[in-house]
Amino acid sequence: MQFIIADDHPLFRGALRQVLSSLPDEAKILEVGDFDAAKKLVVERDDIDLLLLDLTMPGGTGLSGLVTLKALQPALPIIIVSGTDDAATIKHAVELGASGFISKSASMETIGEAVHAVIAGDIWTPSDIDLDQAHDPEIEALINKIRTLTPQQTRVLTMLAEGLLNKQIAYELNVSEATVKAHVSAVLQKLGVDSRTQAVILLSRIGNEAFTSEAS
């Protein structure tokens, strides 16, 4: 099995590596310490079985980073590992495509339980988290809008957030500029906004909701 550990704390990476190495199947583990390196691996590799992701490492953009990676590889299981582990953040992470959420204060046994569950195809969150509980209605409405986007539309949105022009997005996606314009129009309509800037601001709200750029 192939795994990516994306975390900027060597000690915590070591703990995750120990858990993955104890799995019955031989594990090949790739490690990165910043978000851009994690994104690069997700783009280049289609044989990854699980990504363990800290969204507050350098370059991390909070939950909008999760949106970016899921758009690149929609089927890739991602477990968020974070010191920010309030109920709303965990629920929002799962709604945006995370397969699990592990607190950095969790025991090795709990981490192992989460990894096993997600590899088996389940969603894993701490037992005291109620995924049906309502939180900030405005943020949850925004998440619901983002979830209506196709993977390609989501990629276009994240590229807009990176400041790319239509021509650059067309090159990256290997499509025509007309196709990009159609995607942008669809994104704006689904998000209920009138401009690219407004769309990018909405995506940044997801990133800023709970996480910060500081290491957890």
TrEMBL record:
Residues 2-119 form the Response regulatory domain. Transmembrane segments: none annotated. Keywords: DNA-binding, Phosphoprotein. GO terms for molecular function: DNA binding. InterPro entries: CheY-like_superfamily, EvgA-like, NreC/VraR/RcsB-like_REC, Sig_transdc_resp-reg_C-effctor, Sig_transdc_resp-reg_receiver, Tscrpt_reg_LuxR_C. It holds the Pfam family GerE. Residues 142-207 form the HTH luxR-type domain. Signal peptide: none annotated. CDD domains: LuxR_C_like, REC_NarL-like. The modification 4-aspartylphosphate is found at residue 54. This is Flagellar transcriptional regulator FtcR.
